[in-house]
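Our platform keeps sequence and structure together, in a single record for each protein. Because each token names a local backbone shape, the row as a whole describes the fold. One such record is reproduced below, unchanged from the form in which we store it:
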Amino acid sequence: MNKTFNYSTMKVGIIGGGQLGKIMAQKAKKMGFHVTILDPTLNCPAAQVSDKQIIGGFHDPEKLAQLVNENDVTTFELEHVDTSILKKMFDEGKNIYPSPYLIELIQDKYKQKELLDKKGIPVPAYKKVDTKACLESFGFPVIQKARKGGYDGKGVVLLKTKDDLSKAIEAESFIEELVDIQKEIAVMVARNIEGEISCYPVVEMLFDERVNICDIVIAPARIEESLRKEIEDISIKCIEALDGVGIFGVELFLTKDNKILVNEIAPRPHNSGHYTIESCLTSQFEQLIRAVTNLPLGSTKLISPSAMVNLLGEEGYNGEPVIEGIHEALEIPGLSFHFYGKKETSPFRKMGHITVLDESLEEALKKAQIAKEILKVKGSVKL
């Protein structure tokens, strides 16, 4: 597939204006591109660094069409969008990447899993929930997942025993076996319009069990070298199976008997790839801009071991953000601080992140955990 762009006048549209869109916009601006973002919130994080904001929702066909028509290439910060108008425009030759057909598939986690399974990619045992009785078909404990709309642990419930059926998700859903997990791991994979593909290092994710949100990312993952190539090969196979263009976060389980299973795929920059801003020669955000504008992909080489920590809004607070401990935290050698510019905080909302680089992975992790205890994002209103 050949696409010729005029890079001196390149206009990039981004659907979504949160923290991912903000850093995407910054990387596109670094390359001299004009950036327009679509988001319903006035002066959202991405709008603060972009050339233009279209105020509109992600299910507004007129605003989505306006964004696509005003730009040479349109891409995504999030997947929860109305794809109907986007599919029509894509079929008419508009440059929308990843394709809205892929986005629509990813939106339905059951269909996503079904496709991967059909392509021979290892996934946990799963089954569509047609009736309440299906919830018991794997036995207990079992994981139930909403087919659509889930993110950051939302739309996922652990049913430990039959007594938990009262907590079951009422929306369309499917069940998965409860995997005996050794580690949760992730790989960022980039693929451009020409089909060039590149893989980032395998990383390890630690989760905040209170809300099942990724808490710490360790790069590289602390796994046996013999597993790395297998994990990377599986991750690349996933994106080839999807015929994806852009950047993709492939989340996987490493079981206690060293089996690798794909959990799910994000068709955009991913929390597990934030470390790449400081730790890799090309960040996931610049790589996305390269991929969707059909430029050669950058090197994914890891410059230094690192640990990334999400800064979540503290429990018991909302309102205007108040950052505590920033002076003390920034005294830690190798620490980079990112704050997303959100106007309101709330419990467990992603407000920023830190990344710590060190020649020793264990030292990087130790410093990051110290910083995590120091840095707190509270709010102007105590609940």
Observations:
- The chain is about 25% helix and 30% strand.
